[in-house]
Amino acid sequence: MTKTFRNLKLSQRLFLIIIILFLIPYLLLFSSAYSRAENIIRNKIRTIETENMKQSCNTVNNLCTNIINASDYLLSLDNYSSLNTLSSSKNYEYLMAYKTLDTLIQNINNTLLNSNGEISIFSSNELLYSTIPNATLDYESFYKEQTNNISHFSNVHESYNAFMKKGKFISYINTIPSLNNGTDPFYLVISYPCKAFEITLNTASGTMQLFDNNQNQICSTSYSIPQGEFQETMSISISGWKLVDTFSSDAIYKDIYDLRVFTFMVSAFLFVICLVATFIAISIQLKPLMKLKRQMQLVSLGNLDAHLPATASNDEISSLSKTFNGMIGEISSLLDEIKITQKRESELRFEMLLAQINPHFLFNTLNSIKWMSVVAHTDNITNTITSLGRLLEISMNKVNDYLPLDEELTNIKSYIQIQRLRYPGRFEVNYSFDEKILSIYTLKLILQPIVENSIIHNIEHTDYLIIEITGELSNDNIIIHVKDNGIGIPDAKLKQILHKAENNSKGKLFSGIGIYNVQERIQLAYGCDYGLKYSSDGHSYTDVEITFPVTKGHADIFLDRYAYTPSII
């Protein structure tokens, strides 16, 4: 995950970081707000439902109280005995007594029961009074089960359906003490339609149900009862009934769902707007940095003319751009100076090398020429002068620092010819070169200092000096060996022989300084991987290995040398 994040572009990382930093607080805030809103709405709905239930309970309780009050008032009347006495005759007096009682009962029904009550007075075998027209009550089948000597509310019944078709009723049953003469008691029955109780129920979102003491439903606000997980129950104190309010989670969460949808839509819209605005803002802010990146890529390709336009801003990117422009200017100046310095240094080193003419060598050469003239060997003098002239010509040629390997061998042979006059019969030089490499270009005067070093350090200490010069091609490199059978080089000196400080001996042209200059010239031309390598056992031989790469020709070398541009990367 970390590796993937690091591989992203800076703009992508910044965009991702901002999204995470924004999204996490947003989700936490949204979750907290939604949870709080959910709790508030749930508590609000439950509070409303509870208040509705309390109101419904009070209404039902008041209606039951009115029924009881109506029953108590009717029980207080003394009209029942006379009506009961006259009931057998059915005369005028009976009719007037009945009418008087009916008027009183109807007034109570209208006043306390909203004209919804059905009132009857009866025993097990006699109907004394009833508001039900043409009533024929089956006292034995129902009322015998419903009546006793205790005032009470009956369970739900359908006793009146046979002649009224009004559905279910709830009755309040009470005995009439004045008619209890030892026979079957008379009952005052006030029946109230169950449907009339529906107006007492009030609900906000759920379904309220009123149940009697036997768990029979008296009424309900809906015929379809929700299978909800939330349910409240209250008891009707005066009757012992139960009021049940059932409401589903949909009812509770309806407002929450609406709030969630609205909040989500608004939040999603704002989130998209913020993302787009963030992306645009990041792109605008990183635009100068992208320009800087492109310019740096151009610089990495060697274009030092790349620069960034100046801005009036003082931010970090502007400061970085100014620093970049200054750095490019300094790099360009430094590279120009390096080119000039390197060219001049190369020329100076080459001139110093060519100027290092050993007076002792010239003196000995001229001595040889003098003695040759004494003995009058004209041919030898001519050959010697020719060889010396060739060496001097090569040395003083400042234009061509490279020549084919076969010409370098010709030069070393001219040098050997001169040295044979100085040391006649004292040494010999053997050559063994692969013909394929003779046309390959090399630096001039890389063999002469080494051969001279071998002669001057060994000729006086060896009976007969043998020098072997060999050359071969190996892995696109030219390898030349100059090996002698001299006295060798001690280990301590062998490790320091290529160091200028240790070999800066005055008057030694192609010995110390000459060897060092050969090493330096090769490395300047080809790199530090090439040059000289000395090996010796310290007493019987010295082997100098010269290594340099194969080149196509003098022209290529010349161009590579003087058109060289150092890399800034």
Report what the structure shows:
The protein has 569 residues and is an alpha+beta fold. It has 3 domains: 8-291, no CATH class; 302-339, no CATH class; 356-562, Heat Shock Protein 90, CATH 3.30.565. The chain contains 14 helices and 16 strands. The chain has helices at 2-7, 10-75, 79-86, 92-112, 139-146, 249-300, 316-355, 359-375, 378-396, 405-422, 448-458, 491-494, 509-526, 554-562; strands at residues 118-122, 127-130, 152-153, 169-175, 187-193, 207-211, 217-220, 230-235, 242-247, 402-404, 427-433, 441-443, 465-474, 477-484, 531-536, 542-549. A 5-stranded antiparallel sheet has the order 2-1-5-4-3, with helices on one face. A 5-stranded mixed sheet has the order 11-13-14-16-15. A hairpin with a 5-residue loop joins strand 15 and strand 16 (542-549). The longest helix has 66 residues, at 10-75. It is rod-shaped. The chain starts with a helix and ends in a 7-residue tail after the last helix.
Topology:
Layout: H1 2-7, H2 10-75, H3 79-86, H4 92-112, E1 118-122, E2 127-130, H5 139-146, E3 152-153, E4 169-175, E5 187-193, E6 207-211, E7 217-220, E8 230-235, E9 242-247, H6 249-300, H7 316-355, H8 359-375, H9 378-396, E10 402-404, H10 405-422, E11 427-433, E12 441-443, H11 448-458, E13 465-474, E14 477-484, H12 491-494, H13 509-526, E15 531-536, E16 542-549, H14 554-562
Parallel strand pairs: 11-13
Antiparallel strand pairs: 1-2, 1-5, 3-4, 4-5, 6-7, 6-9, 8-9, 10-12, 13-14, 14-16, 15-16
Helix pairs in contact: 2-4, 2-6, 3-4, 6-7, 7-13, 8-9, 9-10, 11-13
